[in-house]
Amino acid sequence: MLSAMTAPGPPPYGSPDALRPRKQPRQARSRATVDRILASGREVLLSDGYDAFSTNRVADAAGISPGSLYQYFPNKHAIVAAIVDRYSDDVSDQVAASLVDRLGEVGPAMVRACADALLTALEENADLLRVVFEELPARQNAARRAALERRVQDLVAAYLAASRAGEPSPRQPTVVAWVLVLAVENLAVRWVLDAPPIPRDVVLDELVRLSLGYLQADRGAGGASA
Amino acid sequence: MLSAMTAPGPPPYGSPDALRPRKQPRQARSRATVDRILASGREVLLSDGYDAFSTNRVADAAGISPGSLYQYFPNKHAIVAAIVDRYSDDVSDQVAASLVDRLGEVGPAMVRACADALLTALEENADLLRVVFEELPARQNAARRAALERRVQDLVAAYLAASRAGEPSPRQPTVVAWVLVLAVENLAVRWVLDAPPIPRDVVLDELVRLSLGYLQADRGAGGASA
DNA sequence: CTGGTATGCGAGTCCTGGCTCGCGTCAGGA
DNA sequence: TCCTGACGCGAGCCAGGACTCGCATACCAG
Question: Residue B13: which pLDDT band, with cuts at 50, 70 and 90?
C-alpha cells in the first residue's frame, strides 16, 4: 500500500498510479468525507470551472480541511480524475446498455434508438460534459475516453459481424465501427454543447441517415481512387 | 490604442480584446523580436508541452527578457492564441482552397481529393495538432475552431445547394454540411492523433463512403421514427 | 475503561510563474 | 550631430495555490 509515497521522485501525472488513492476510508465517517469531496469537487467544477478548481476551494466547499483531502487523494488531479471517471462510466454504461438491448434488431429503428440513448446520456449532464470537453486538458482524459470509445466500438463491431446478412462486401467490422462511433460521438457531443439551430429529431434523423447510408455505401462509391 | 491598460480591472480572458497586442512593433528590430517570441513559443509548446509553457521559459528560449515579451503581448494567453491562430488559419486555408478548386466537380473523386487535402494539412503539423487538441483547454480555441468549421461548412453548403442535381429530397444544405464537416473533421483528427491500425487510403475510402452514403441516404432511411 | 488507530484540523510552508518598472541602449529623423 | 521615442533588460515583486505536519479528536477492539 501507499505505493505513491514510496516512489523516490514524484511520478509524472501520466504514470498509472499517480492518481491512486493514498488509503482506503475504513470507517463510515471517512467514507462520507470522500463522498463529500467528490460531490463538492463536482460542484466547483460546474459552477466555477476548472480554472477555479483548487484543492483549498474544494476542501472549503466540502466543509473539510485541506489536510483531510490529502488523506485520500494524492493530488489535485486525482480528484478530477475520480469525478470524470464516474461520469464517463455513467455515459458508457447507458450507451452500452442501449446497444446490448438491441443487438438482435436491425434497421433504422435500432440505430435511432441507440443514437437517442447517446443524446439522452449526454444531455443529462450537459454542464459536466462541457467542463470535460472544453475546460479540462484533453490529455488527462484521453485514456478514459479511449476506453469508452473502444467499449462501444467493440459492441458495434460485434453487432456488424453478426448481422451482416445481405451486406455486399465484407468490410472490416473494426474499421467500420471506428468510423461510425467516432463520427456519431462527435456529432452528438457538438450538438449538445454548441446547440446549433437543429431540432433534436432532425439530428436523430441525420444520424440514422449517416450510419445506414455509410453501411450501405457499397454501390458506386466503393474503391473510388483519386 | 492600449485599450487593455486603461481598463480598471483586468478583463476576463474571454473578452474580445484581452489578447490584443499592446503596441505594434515599429522598427525592424522589434518585428524580429515578435517573430522570435512566436517561433520560440511554438518550439516550447512542441518540445515540452503546454504545462511547461511559461512566459519566462519562452522569453529565455527566444533569447530575450520577460519584459520585452510584455511589450507586445498583454499576457501569456495572447502568445498561445497568436501561435494557434496562425496554425488554424493555415489548415483552414488549405482545406478551403482544396474545396474551392473543385467546386465544379462531383462524385467520389472530388470528395476524396478534399478529404485528402484535409488529412495532408493535419499530418503536416501533427505535433502542433496534438498540442492544440490534447493539451490546450478547448475553451480558448473554441471560437477559432468554430470559425474554421463554419468557413468550411459554408463552402460545403454552397456546394450542395449548387450541385444537388438528381438529389431526391431537398434537405437543408446547412444541416447536411454541419453533419458532414463535423463527422469528417473528427475522424481525420482522430486518425492522425491516435494512429489506429488503418492505412491511409482505407481511411480515405471510408470517408468517401461515409460522405456519399450520407448524401444519397434517402431511400429507406428517411424519416425513420423510433 | 483504555490504548491504539483512524480521522480531521488548519495555519503555515514553499515554490511556481505571471507580470512590472526603472533604467540603460539603439535607431532614425531633423 | 543630437535628441526623442522605440526598444530591451532582468532582478524582483507578489498572488495564488498545491501540499504538509504536528496535534486534537472520534471510533473501536479488547
Answer: very low
